[in-house]
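User: I'm writing a tutorial on reading structure tokens. Could you give me a worked example: one chain, its sequence, then its tokens, then a sentence or two explaining what the tokens reveal?
Assistant: Sure. Here is the example chain.
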Amino acid sequence: MQPLEYDIRHFPFSRYGAMVAVSRDLQKNELVFHDARAHDGQDRALRVIFSDRPIVPKDDEDLKEIPGIPFQSTGTPSRLFITAASGKAEIIISGDHRLRVQAEGLFLLLTPCRKDGSTAVMIDQKHVESICPSASRYARIDMEKGSMSLFGETTLRGGQYPAKRMTSVLIAPEDGVIDFQVQLAQSPALVDETIPAEESCRRAEEDWAAFLQKMPPVPEKYREYGEKAWFALWAAYVKAQPPYHDDTILMSKKFMSAVWSWDHCFNALAVGRNDPALGMNQLLCPFYLQQEDGALPDRFGPDSVLWACSKPPVHGWCRTKLRAWHEYDEQTLRTVYRHLEKWTDWWMTCRVYGPDSLPGYPRGCDSGLDNSTCFDKGDYIESADLSAYLALQMNCLSDIARKLNEPEAAAQWKQKSAALIDKMIARLWNGTRFVPRLCRTQEAIGDTESILLYLPLVLGDLLPAEIADKMIEEMKKHNLTAYGLASESPESPKYNPDGYWRGPIWAPTTYLIVDGLKRMGRTEDAKEIALRFCGMCTEKAHGFYENYDALTGIGLRTPGYTWTASAFLCMVWEFCM
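And here are its predicted structure tokens:
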């Protein structure tokens, strides 16, 4: 088998356990060093520009205009190789919070991605320290070979924080060679010990080889991207630390470097396909933060835990799929049962907004489809997909209760599931589709062509056949493109090709739907959609993005996105073998 190589424009460079990563945007001749303790842009720590001569920026505006020289960037599990006309560089991860850069024939300019309130000082000719309070970040550059020059501009305003501050570090070669390390951490005390370069690379290669052995086989057609998808999961792991109870897969180590409380379910299914313990660890990761009333956080990471919002309850669906592959011991079953029972009861009590209402979503974020057109008339809606998830979760609880020899509880959950489906159909089915309603007025939301309308297909054979057939017909007519299921129909006046959940194709909705189609016996329809999605990832986008243009198949947001890699692998295993 060929050693893994990848384009870092499609996959951030990192490794298992590291809190640092390196990325490159498709159109730019520069790198970004990321600090995976933060997310949503706060992770962007340092911008790195390569040059064949010294660069001395005059001010912040001048810095924006510096293009850097063209270069090639190739990643492996242990090293990142940079090649340019005038020289070359190699970057390795020499500690969980540390990057090492060695270069020949190049100058490097490093500048903080955030300027607000950051300070920097040259301790001596070999050491520069920077502190950015707004990102809770300490950075340090330690020079082994080469020289450093610190350039900065500060404008003070009445003793307040600086109104403008620009600090850049020019690193010049010594005898044509540069060798330095960059530390990114919360404080100097958290900076880890340096691991020698060759030892660090050896450990990474061995660790990757061991993880690769856990991957279920894929057909030769998908071998290259199957391995790259598995690598995306491995490289996105961070080690157990608050608030991560176990080693945990982030969504990405670029921009989305945290965990959202439904994304992790798809990763659980990928790593849990062959390894029941890995799958259960990822499924349970938000439940260690579960509140007494049953609520889960929307998103969590070392920088913060976000409450008030939540994410859809696909956890019972996920556990049922894991159960199809593996048996779990009684202690694990009781743990899962306790968490899912509280989670289900929370939705059925804290998210019901009328005396005879279905559970509802307060905001688009709670549905997982943040800005779906279903929420254009207002927040607080009843949507059939939520009832479908909860019905599946109730069936999951019934199955666990039966395994625990609690037949009365098993029967009660089964009855609750059937009753919820009946109520969902009675309230929201209009003969053609499930129509969301505003909770407070019960006004139907008809001016939407969102994929949300078709997510109740996840019920599989629990959905009456005549309803399922009509939904599939409508979904294929309006939302199915050459590359998969658009989040908003391209025919819709609200369609936006890069509108987040208002047009692009997404992995989780695709997989939820094809899984439901498979369980209702519509295997050919499921396979057709899965093949289109998988082909888009490999042939058009060349990687696993947060979402994709529904008409061109090009990746749009956040490369190396793990739930996409996981959904891709699951669809290959289930439909492409």
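What the tokens reveal: Residues 160-164 have pLDDT under 50 and may be disordered. The chain has 14 helices and 27 strands.
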